Amino acid sequence: MTAAPVREGATAAARPARRRWARWGGRARRGDSAGRGGTAGGSGQGRGRARARWARHASAWLWLAPALILFALFKFVPMARAISMSFKEVRPYLGDRWVGLDNYRAVVDDDAFRAAAGHTVVLALGETVGSIVVGLILALLLEGSARHLWFVRTAVFLPTVTAMAVVAALWRVIYYPAPDGALNSVLGWVGLGPGNYLDSPHSSLWSVMAVGIWRGAPYDMMIFIAGLAGVDRTLYEAAAADGAGPLRRLWHVAFPAMRPVFTIVVTLAAIRGLRVFTEIFLLTNGGPNGSTEVVMTLVYKLGLERNELGIASAGSMLLLVGTIVLTLLAQLLRRGNHK
């Protein structure tokens, strides 16, 4: 008699627990189905974003493809061929013969190559320092937003975009060694005697350096102008309020803010100086008596005039290694400045 009420009481007590369990199970099943649906929807959205991102990248690469193909054909393929030739004795119609490092030993032991490397370093240093100093002075003079400055900047920038053949012809006229030459006439007004410039072993290298500075300074000027435009003007105003003059504002405000710009300019100018060829070839062709011979002109003569293509390739590879080392050093210095 007492068992039935007990069972009924237990059943009545268990009903709320069952109802709570059913409600929890239903929520769990709904959450699981919603999670599966959300996962499917999220994966679909992810695939859509990936396809859109791939389409954007593919279109960019398609636009770049013609230029990259030309760049590979005329830059990387010849470079790979030159690396291969530097380890061989190149014999047209007879087949190349592997010589290992003999070409590099011949280049390093050659007095003419060492002299050309010295001239290259001197030209690179002189043109780098000269073009940076002149370019910075021009940038400080022409920096601003005045309307007439665009015309002056364009006129100053013309030497950079003028063909080197035209520049060489112009400077040959300026350097004409006769007393009535252009530069000699101007120097005669102040009592200085006529000079031979390109025709003298003592002045030919410096004369070519002056041409390189004249042509490279406007390029550096434009980079400096862009760097000066990025300096915060409030820093100038704060320095002026503290009593700093123009030179102190330039030294303590502008120059520290332009450290990355200086790194870029120094790197580009140094590489430009190391790879100098056209100026020498058109103005002096390495003369007189080898006083302006540089690595690039010597490589040209070894490869195309003496038909020593293997040795010429070895010389060009050494110049490439020097350029890469210079670029890496500039990058390390730039990272050090950022830190």
Could you explain the architecture of this structure?
This protein is mainly alpha-helical. The chain is built from 13 helices and two strands; from the N terminus they run αββαααααααααααα. The protein has helices spanning 3-85, 102-109, 111-142, 149-161, 164-174, 182-189, 204-229, 233-241, 246-257, 259-274, 278-283, 295-305, 309-338, and strands spanning 88-89, 97-98.
Write the layout of secondary structure elements.
Blueprint lengths: L2 H83 L2 E2 L7 E2 L3 H8 L1 H32 L6 H13 L2 H11 L7 H8 L14 H26 L3 H9 L4 H12 L1 H16 L3 H6 L11 H11 L3 H30 L1
Antiparallel strand pairs: 1-2
Helix pairs in contact: 2-13, 3-7, 3-10, 4-7, 7-10, 8-9, 10-13, 12-13
Which short descriptors sum up this protein?
339 residues; mainly alpha; MetI-like fold; 2 domains; 2 strands; disordered N terminus
Short account of what is shown:
The protein has helices at 3-85, 102-109, 111-142, 149-161, 164-174, 182-189, 204-229, 233-241, 246-257, 259-274, 278-283, 295-305, 309-338; strands at 88-89, 97-98. It has 339 residues and is mostly helical.
* Unreliable stretches covering 5 or more consecutive residues: 1-14, 24-40
Q: Give the DSSP E fraction (strand runs of 2 or more residues).
A: under 5%
Number of helices: 13
Q: Classify the fold: give the CATH topology of the largest domain.
A: MetI-like fold
Work out the helicity level.
over 70%
Report the CATH C-level class of the largest domain: Mainly Alpha
- One letter per element, helices H and strands E, the order comes to HEEHHHHHHHHHHHH
Mean pLDDT, all residues = 82
Name the CATH superfamily classification of the largest domain: MetI-like
* Approximate shape: globular
User: Could you say what the CATH architecture of the largest domain is?
Assistant: Orthogonal Bundle
Give the biggest beta sheet. Answer: 2 strands, antiparallel
**Total DSSP E strands:** 2
